[in-house]
Design a protein that fits this description.
single chain, alpha+beta, Lipocalin, nine-stranded antiparallel beta sheet, about 30% helix
Length: about 475
């Protein structure tokens, strides 16, 4: 399939997904065989004057930053300044979590296998910057970070290496270690040792540099006000404390240089960022995650995830969200193809499908037929609507909230909203159940040859009327 044919297919899907997920602006770039083969912006980077998003628009890329932090750590390994088996306490003596006989190591922080569950630090910082739902937790300095983490000794839920817990604070600790061993502030180390060699000259962690740039996103916080969805412009939650786990601001065009280096054994335009064997360790599956996946198992390496069943290949990537901006970088190493997108709202939603869809197209696949989520979406859309029993005496609605269907009874005497839990993950059947008084109550949809939909529950039969 030619690139032109691929563009025609996926551009419409992107526009539909942006409408469905209420995304103001999005930028996208595609890399193949070490070259950028496609780049464009969709929608508005700023609503106020309808300024268009471009491939050069700067966005907050959130947790995509983690792979940069992991790369900095691996550079220090290459320089002989630390070992991945080193206990965290060797470089941060003030770190008090874990057992002396089985300590938490650098490897554990890189792979989110420390045994420490999420401690909420990212949420504290984000809501503080947005001015909503303040948590009142001291979290403004590295001393506060250590106090917060050390106070969670009793929260440790597993021995190191035994269980995956995605831990933003772990990458903040890695940022501190980078500063200790390099004798440089984290943001300056990454700038000098990674961004500059990659010619990512506009990418930054610094608010003042971001705000003076001429092509930057306006971040939006979407919320319902008086029943209407409103996109409210806000500030991007930039904090030095969270630089290492989610603070980078970049464009999809500059990030293509980074993907090219990752697909070219650590080399970009003749400059070597890292030994190829160490880079391979970063992409390698180390710990199986507990994340749901359409493509087999999902593993975590060092700052990257790996999905191991993508049409016979492995996808390496990472996503990120700051609640008001989000991004994803994904590539298929053995095919030398990659995709990057960024947008100016948080979360992922339908946007998360952009990388696998484009990669599938580039592989000559038809994702609309071969990626199951599209068939699931089609079936869910078919079931949503108004239903009525005999003579319209009893009525219910089937509505969608996020990725879940709900059955809602609006009758004054028994109004309730019940989640429809599918009996099969991919909706191979249209059988569901609802939890009623702690009991699984079956619900079944039946579609006849003409496309008419009936809903059966207990003694009731409902016909879809709208």
């Amino acid at each position: 399939m030619s690139l032109g044919e691929v563009e025609e297919k996926f551009e419409g899907l992107i526009a539909d997904a942006m409408m469905r997920d209420h995304v103001p602006g999005l930028s996208l770039a595609v890399v193949k065989d070490g070259k950028v083969v496609y780049a464009r912006g969709f929608g508005a980077r700023r609503f106020k004057d309808n300024a268009p998003a471009t491939p050069d628009t700067l966005y907050g890329v959130g947790s995509c930053t983690k792979s940069f932090t992991a790369l900095a750590i691996m550079q220090l390994v290459e320089q002989g300044k630390l070992n991945l088996k080193d206990p965290v306490k060797k470089h941060l003596p003030e770190f008090k979590v874990g057992k002396e006989e089985n300590p938490i190591t650098i490897h554990n922080l890189l792979t989110h296998s420390s045994g420490i569950p999420d401690l909420g630090g990212a949420d504290v910082e984000i809501v503080r910057h947005l001015g909503v739902d303040e948590k009142w937790v001291p979290f403004s300095s590295f001393e506060d970070l250590m106090l917060h983490v050390n106070g969670a000794k009793d929260e440790v839920a597993a021995e190191p290496g035994r269980r995956f817990f995605y831990l933003n604070e772990g990458y903040e600790l890695l940022g501190m270690i980078i500063e200790r061993l390099s004798q440089m502030r984290y943001e300056y180390y990454v700038r000098d040792m990674i961004l500059k060699p990659l010619k990512m000259n506009r990418s930054t962690f610094l608010r003042e540099e971001f705000e003076k740039d001429q092509d930057v996103m306006t971040p939006y916080f979407t919320e319902k006000k008086d029943g209407t969805l409103v996109a409210t412009p806000t500030v991007h939650p930039i904090s030095r404390l969270s630089y290492a786990d989610g603070g980078l601001m970049s464009s999809v065009m500059e990030l293509t240089n980074y993907l090219i280096a990752n697909m070219n054994h650590g080399v970009f335009e003749g400059t070597k960022l890292l030994d190829s064997a160490l880079l391979q360790e970063m992409h390698k599956p180390h710990v199986q995650t507990n994340w749901p996946s359409l493509f087999g198992r999902t593993w975590y390496g060092y700052g990257w995830y790996a999905k191991d069943e993508f049409f016979g290949h492995t996808i390496v990537g990472h996503s990120g969200s700051t609640a008001v901006s989000s991004a994803n970088m994904s590539f298929v190493p053995d095919l030398n193809i990659g995709v990057i997108y960024a947008c100016n709202v948080g979360g992922n939603g339908s946007m998360a499908l952009i990388p696998p869809v484009i990669l599938a197209f580039l592989m000559g696949k038809d994702p609309l037929k071969e990626i199951p989520v599209f068939e699931i979406e089609k079936k869910m859309a078919m079931l949503v609507g108004e239903y009525a029993g005999y003579k319209g005496i009893i009525k219910v609605s089937v509505v969608r909230k996020g990725g879940v269907l709900f059955m809602e009874d609006k009758e004054k005497l028994s109004g309730q909203s019940l989640p429809l839990i599918p009996e099969s993950d991919r909706l191979e059947t249209l059988k569901f159940y609802v939890p009623m008084e702690g009991i699984r109550t079956p619900v079944e949809f039946v579609v006849d040859d003409s496309g008419k939909v009936d809903l059966y529950m207990e003694r009731y039969r409902f016909h879809k009327v709208k």
